[in-house]
Amino acid sequence: MNRLMMLLLAAALLTACSPHPDQARPESVALDFFDALYNRNDATRAMQLVDEELGELMAHYRLASQIQRNIIGLAMTDVELSVAEVDIDFFRRNSNRVEVLIQFQGHKGGRVMRDDRLVRLERVGERWIITHLYSDPFKTNG
Q1: Which fold has domain 22-133?
Q2: Could you give the dihedral angle defined by the CA atoms of residues 32, 35, 41 and 45, in that order, rounded to the nearest 10 degrees?
């Protein structure tokens, strides 16, 4: 009886440690990251999807609104997200680094705005994590 209980406990632990099915796709991780910041206002969830270095930077700002403004450089409300492009091909299983372009449509200052953000993800074990948020190439200081 004890062996059966130990076997069931071990199976439950292994099942709990396996990645969420959506975490197996880099574009799903990128969408989940931005959805956590822009729609769910959940900085903690977003920090779980990034590497240690980016997570430390995000922890400094703590609030989703501050992360939007200071790290991503795009503060918006009522955001709709979609995947615009994934730079990966048929051989996805062999790729350990992917860039995903996410399109934003939301409101800022009472106006509808559209923008794009590019993120780099790397495979760590069975899951993908965000390792780099590219800055807006068209951003100017004046």
Answers
A1: Nuclear Transport Factor 2; Chain: A, (3.10.450)
A2: 10
